[in-house]
Amino acid sequence: MLSLNPKTLSPSPFNPRSFVIPKKPSISSPSLYVNSTTCCQPNQITERGILFYTGDTFFRHESATGRDLGVLSAALYKQSKGQLRVLDAMCGCGIRSLRYLVESKADFVLANDANESHRRVILDNLAQVERLEGEKKRWVVTHCEANRILTDCYLQRDYFDYIDLDSFGSDSSFFLRAAFSSLKLDGLVYVTSTDGYSSGGHRPFHSLSAFGAYVRPMPYANELGLRILIGGAVREASVLGYRVTPLFSYYSYHGPVFRVLLRMNRGKLPEKRDYGFICYCNRCGNSQAVSWDELGQIRCPCNNSTKDAASLVVSGPLWTGPLHSGAYIMEMLNLAEQWGWVGKAAGTGLEKLLKRMLEESDPRLPFGYIKLDEVASRAQTNTPSISTIMSSLHKEGYAASRSHIAHNAIKTDCPMAGCIRIAKKIHGC
Predict the structure, then answer these.
(1) What Å distances lie between residue 91 and 86, 127, 279, 300, CA to CA?
(2) Domain finish residue from 269, 298, 325
(3) Which helix (H) or strand (E) holds 409?
């Protein structure tokens, strides 16, 4: 376990000589420009007007939205704090590092990737931004295992404002403690998981070892993926005396990919019911949050017998609080509008996502979502349209929104029985 010393809020200059990097022949990086039409590396790609090369690195076009969200959040930090030092712990081809430099106006980026064979591609991409020297140095490339680079930064007391952990599977859970140790107070961690099996409840002991949560199959598995990721971060941060708060949570079906932006400050575990257990009843379709002191007393209102209690499944501990900060999502949306990333000329993808996240930020909405196919099955009717059932829910005074996670599902404080009644009413049953 890492021991902590008091953190300074002022950045210390990064000294690349502190990192032991295997020697290799010097590489002459060509001068590259955003509007360049030349190509010295294979797989030339443009993203948000920025030219870069992927070479033989793993790269997904579909992850561009996640990169957009990261760039927006980093830019908001720079506007708020006046400075921005980024550690991209698993940078791949370096596109995120490049975008943090160009679009978020990062003062310094440490681009690290454990695979040294990616070095030429990363250097060629970052060469579009003048490196400079000394305290004005804009970027450095290293090749270390993520935990090592994070721990070395902590030992040097070289703290960062923003740390990007973009790993595969549930690996990010193993880097979180080192990441929090090398992060400034009020800094941001952008963490990733692609472990869809654990969120679906198919590997409960794996989710227990990786995130500290035993997860059972539930109908809103992809939201559980975000909640166990946040819950794992809450656990790791609390060990170090810190408290983390999610600013936004993003799910994408490709992968699948679970991405969460967390803000870290000093503090204890969250109060109330934000970190606990989720219970789902297969019999009636209702869910409920269960606090630690309620364990052993779990009952669903739809049954009282011991036999009926077998219909209950419990997952946790995990994050049961809000997935987004509505105020923060609004700031991101406003900045995206300023940059021309939303609007008629920019397409609807990012704007639609941010507005849906804003709807999901309604404090009246509980965790989880309800699939309309499940409502129709229980009501024995055709599946109602989302707009129709949401309109009916709003007329009856319930909170309801679409889910950015599942296209044919809604988030609502109306119980399943109420949704079934409304579905029957819509179809004249």
Answers:
(1) 11, 15, 38, 46
(2) 269
(3) strand 409-412
Looking at the fold, whether 372 and 236 belong to one and the same domain comes out as no
Same domain, 79 and 228: yes
DSSP state of 116: G
**Contact status, residue 13 vs residue 135, Cβ threshold 8 Å:** yes
Q: Are residues 385 and 264 both part of a single domain?
A: no
Locate the DSSP E strands across 13-49.
Answer: 44-47
Residue span of the structural domain in which 68 resides: 43-269
Strand segments (E) across 214-360 = 242-252, 257-266, 275-281, 287-290, 312-319
Residue 281 pairs in a beta bridge with 312
Tokens 């799910």, located at residue: 251
Q: What is the pLDDT of residues 262-303, one digit of tens each?
A: 999 998 776 667 999 999 999 999 999 999 988 888 888 887
* pTM of the predicted protein model: 0.88
| Segment holding 139, helix H or strand E | strand 139-142
What number of other Cβ atoms are within 10 A of residue 223's Cβ? Answer: 26
Q: How far apart are CA 409 and CA 370, in angstroms?
A: 5
Residue 156 to residues 7, 8, 54, 149, 159, Cα–Cα distance (Å): 11, 12, 32, 11, 8
Residue 158 domain flag: yes
398 domain-assigned: yes
